[in-house]
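User: Small ask, check this?
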Amino acid sequence: MSAASIQAVQASSAEAPDLSVDVVVESDGWPPDAALVVLVEEALDTAARRAANGLGPCEVAVAFADDARVRELNRDFLGKDKPTNVLSFPAPAVSGLPGPRPLGDIVLARETVAMEAAADGKPLDHHIRHLVVHGFLHLLGYDHETDADADRMEGLETEVLAALGVADPYRNEEAD
């Protein structure tokens, strides 16, 4: 088990928030810590520039766990006794705290993420970027409970991922 922490650099755009990021690697089998830090930093910086205008200083934790841990979290907090690729846990809104505003935690499940990437024939790093962006948008309040909400969230994800050089994960493969 290892942990790596980063402090995301203040984005050059005046619209991008000052984002502090903690990256924690809880299980073996993920890419090297340094590679994960870069993936997370790039994904969150790009997503923050496009989706978090006016947010101000904030912080996010991203944990790289295994299916067993994510299954446990999914069961205990969401009542679903199964692993999933990514979970987001928004921090409760608390005013008056010193320092950056906590946005919440994002947790990825290694086996599920790797299996999905392989099944879809996409690079693992692209899938990780996608899920980090997806989780971050949930922390910002986006969801996909209705078709309209899903279209809005998926459109923003696709825009962020395109800026990162990642193909549209929602593109209908049958339309090719």
Remarks:
- The first helix runs from residue 33 to 51.
- The longest strand covers residues 101-109.
- Residues 1-14 have pLDDT under 50 and may be disordered.
